[in-house]
Design goal:
264 residues, Fructose-1,6-Bisphosphatase, Chain A, domain 1, alpha+beta, single chain, D-Maltodextrin-Binding Protein, domain 2
Amino acid sequence: MSSISKHELELRLAAACAIAREAGDLARREFYRRDRGALTLKGNQDYLTQTDQDVEQLITGRLGGLFPDDGIMGEEGGGIPAARCWVIDPIDGTENFARGVPHFCISIAFIQNLIPELGVVYNPITNELFAGSRGNGAFLNGVALRASTVTDPTRAAVEAGWSSRRPLEGYLRMWKGLAEGGCSVRRSGSGTLGLAYVADGRLEGYCELHINAWDALASLVLVREAGGWTNDFLANEGLTRGNAVLAAAPGMKDFLVRVTGIHP
């Protein structure tokens, strides 16, 4: 399939932004209800609410109507990868959402031939819309994003995500290396927002030994377009199996590669 034209990419980016805001309105309404939807567990500390499913249906319905020839992969509904494919997470940070913590987002990415072409991340509580496309920059509510210029680990804030899909010992080594290097280490419960914050210079890095594609792809576009660095997340079947992820401010790349063990 020929590469996507600039006009086609602009249409998809505009549509993704509008759909993310609409989906965010739904998620925000449900968040402020006392009953935020029936909460179930898909696995160890892997939460699902009815709102996740409702939001995903909204997003897939809108995208399918506008771009019927594109594939769609969603966290809840699955899907089959296609040459042109949307990858969506209806609510990243579901545990936060379910527990009343206002730190979650809608994530929509578009890839072609395993190349991430655009990413949109919307936090409906703060009304922050992060959006970018390959070669055209990344923006927060229309203002250009820029990765941090920090180069000293003792001045750096790094988010270290966690997943039960990898042994705890690996995470303990990673956290120890970050702390011994002098970093402020944190975990907020949304990998998508953590990665977006690297693009916005709020964090100098984000690392996780395993994360799924729908949690990462949109924000990886933002980081790269903001001048940051990321590993090759889609290598080794990352789209369907997930992968380790590392995003860094340019001056922190070498340090973070060394202490996390996550290589390019």
